[in-house]
Amino acid sequence: PDLAPLIARSGAGLIVMASEAGAAEAASPVETVLEALKAGLGIAGQAGIDPERIVVDPGIGFFRRRGIAWHRWDCSVLAGLGRLRELGRPVCVGASRKSFIGEIGGEPDPARRLPGSLAAAAAAVLAGAHLIRAHDVAETVQAVRVAEAVRQAREGA
Prior knowledge:
- With 157 residues, this protein is mostly helical.
- It contains six helices and four strands, in the order αβαβαβααβα.
- The strands form two sheets. It has a two-stranded parallel ribbon. The protein has a two-stranded parallel ribbon with strand order 3-4.
- It is globular and about 40 Å long.
- The model has no long low-confidence stretch (mean pLDDT 94).
């Protein structure tokens, strides 16, 4: 909240990310993330930040104490990512090299999680993500282009 007026005055863009801190427990991981993002967007709106400069991020990897295994939480959020589109803002996903990929894929070294990172990026695009944050940019661009082509074919575009 203290940063919001500065962002509004400066004209900077903003990524509103859901996080466990202050997030109320909802019926599902997606609902919890959705409610956290709505709260963040409310703060931004009260500060006068132009909604056209705001992107939302579900906070993959930032929910650890929610009664279900954190890697299942992250998968559930990725699977339900399309729900975040109802916020009317572009959706950004940063899953690259995250620990849920290591847990599922059995790879403790983040630098060796490229295959899982590409799968997560493709899943995010297929579920409706507009932006992908990645460590391995060239490889991720290729995966995202393929996933986007599949999404467009599915949607009849």
